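Per your request, structure below.
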């Protein structure tokens, strides 16, 4: 009878073995956060496109651009975040790299939109940071 080689903690994987993979729970958690963030960004974008008078300041009070441009940007970001979130929930780790980039762009965009809706922007920036943390912790 042959013996089965045992693997001890700390042993390096063999050359043909796959590298470390994030636990499925972390990818799913990151996907859920990204889906929530995408839904919020899509909601913000559609509101900026449909009802620019809803926000606290007029179009001249924004850091840059105007409401239709912000609405388009946030609607597109939200759509991409929803798609990436669905990919992460299906445990597709390759979506994590794109998700990190999209979330960073969204956080910077929220900083530019801060004057229009400060509390909402602050909450979404916080959710972006939490999502980034979860994505980066999943990459270990």
């Amino acid at each position: 009878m042959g013996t089965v080689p045992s693997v001890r903690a700390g042993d390096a994987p063999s050359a043909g073995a796959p590298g470390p993979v994030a636990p499925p729970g972390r990818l799913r958690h990151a996907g859920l956060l990204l889906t929530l963030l995408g839904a919020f960004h899509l909601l913000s974008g559609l509101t900026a496109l449909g009802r620019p008078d809803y926000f606290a300041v007029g179009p001249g009070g924004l850091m840059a651009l105007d409401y239709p441009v912000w609405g388009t940007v946030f609607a597109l970001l939200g759509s991409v975040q929803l798609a990436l979130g669905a990919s992460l929930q299906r445990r597709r780790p390759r979506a994590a790299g794109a998700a990190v980039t999209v979330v960073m762009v969204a956080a910077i965009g929220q900083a530019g939109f801060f004057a229009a809706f400060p509390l909402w922007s602050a909450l979404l920036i916080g959710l972006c940071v939490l999502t980034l943390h979860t994505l980066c912790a999943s990459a270990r």
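The CA atoms of residues 34 and 85 lie 5 Å apart.

Regards,
D.
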